[in-house]
Structures are given as structure tokens and as C-alpha cells.
Write a structure and sequence with these properties.
93 residues, mainly alpha, 72% helix, elongated
């Protein structure tokens, strides 16, 4: 019986920072969607104290819809961009 202890696991060799950069290059609209989501949530928390007489639940629903809309829009743009790269921008042999 031979045991192969010299197995190269290149996917486990990369740290989280380089993995995030590699994934961002593969799908650039994912980090844009994440950043937009975080920005909308931060804005919603900032505006929470000055919402006036608007109910808390209504304010939270509006912020959730805005954040989800931004993420869905970024995903849609990302899919359109990847389809463009794959089908139209690809050089024809």
C-alpha cells in the first residue's frame, strides 16, 4: 500500500485576500452588489433616527427593498456583462 502524502492542494494554498481578488476579477459585479448593499444598509441605519413619524416597520421594509433591488440589479448587469464577453466579444475562430 502506498500513501501519497505529497498531494498538491493548490486551492487550499491561497489566502482569503487573494481568493477574494481572484473571484472579483472573475465576476466584477458581485463585489459591487455587496458594497451597494452595505452602503444602503448603512444609510438606512443613519436615517433611522430622523425618520420622523414613519413607522419603524415601514422604514425597514423600504430599506430592505432598496438593498435587494440594488443587489438584483448588480447581478443582472453582471449576467449581461458575462454574456457579452462570452458570446459577442469573443473572437471568432
Amino acid at each position: 500500500m502506498s500513501t501519497d502524502t505529497d498531494v498538491s492542494l493548490s486551492s487550499y494554498d491561497e489566502d482569503q485576500g487573494s481568493k477574494l481578488i481572484r473571484k472579483a476579477k472573475e465576476a466584477p459585479f458581485v463585489p459591487i452588489g455587496m458594497a451597494g448593499f452595505a452602503a444602503i444598509v448603512a444609510y438606512g441605519l443613519y436615517k433611522l433616527k430622523s425618520r420622523g413619524n414613519t413607522k419603524m416597520s415601514l422604514h425597514l421594509i423600504h430599506m430592505r427593498v432598496a438593498a435587494q433591488g440594488f443587489v438584483v440589479g448588480a447581478m443582472t448587469l453582471g449576467m449581461g456583462y458575462s454574456m457579452y464577453r462570452e458570446f459577442w466579444a469573443k473572437p471568432k475562430p
